[in-house]
Amino acid sequence: MRVGIGYDSHRFAVGRKLILGGQAIPHSAGLAGHSDADAVAHALTDAILGAAAAGDIGTHFPDTDARFTDADSMDLLRRAVALVRSRGLRVVNADVTVIAEQPKLGPHVHAMARALEAALGCGEGSVGVKAKTNEGMGFIGAGEGLAVMAVALLEAG
Ligand code: MG
């Protein structure tokens, strides 16, 4: 068994779509980023790569590489899963916390979890997604951006 942790944060940017866990979420702003800026997919990708001690999202999918401009981050997540599979590891489960003051993400956590389970190739009930606010504090509370934490458990086989 191997555990990995991931973290990501992005600034809000007007005129971009808000994509989290592969879901387009209605909001007045999206997230700034080179790819689609899906911070949920990014944090989980880092957790999976980290569990395998296989580097991080920036080393595998650099934002200086034009191939990843506006990339579908769920595709990057699937690639990370394939990479750890090639090293004899599979994802057992994962847990994700999204910290955002707005929009309210509770109505979207179920769809995010199902999409992440499909990307990870693990069964329903394997991925938890939770939405929190930051109680009005700091950059998240001020609505400058949002942050995501993720952990993933991998096992041989
Ligand atoms: Mg990111």
Word description of this protein:
- With 157 residues, this protein is of the alpha+beta class.
- It has a single domain (2-156), classed as 2-C-methyl-D-erythritol 2,4-cyclodiphosphate synthase (60s Ribosomal Protein L30, Chain: A), CATH 3.30.1330.
- It has five helices and seven strands.
- Strands 4-1-7-5-6 form a five-stranded mixed beta sheet. It has a two-stranded antiparallel ribbon with strand order 2-3.
- A hairpin with a 2-residue loop joins strand 2 (19-20) and strand 3 (23-24).
- It is globular.
- The mean pLDDT is 96.
- Bound molecules: magnesium ion.
Number of helical elements: 5
How many separate structural domains?
Answer: 1
Secondary-structure element order, N to C:
EEEEHHHEHEHE
| Major beta sheet summary | 5 strands, mixed
CATH fold-level label: 60s Ribosomal Protein L30, Chain: A
- What structural class should be given to the helix and strand makeup? alpha+beta
CATH architecture: 2-Layer Sandwich
Mass-distribution shape: globular
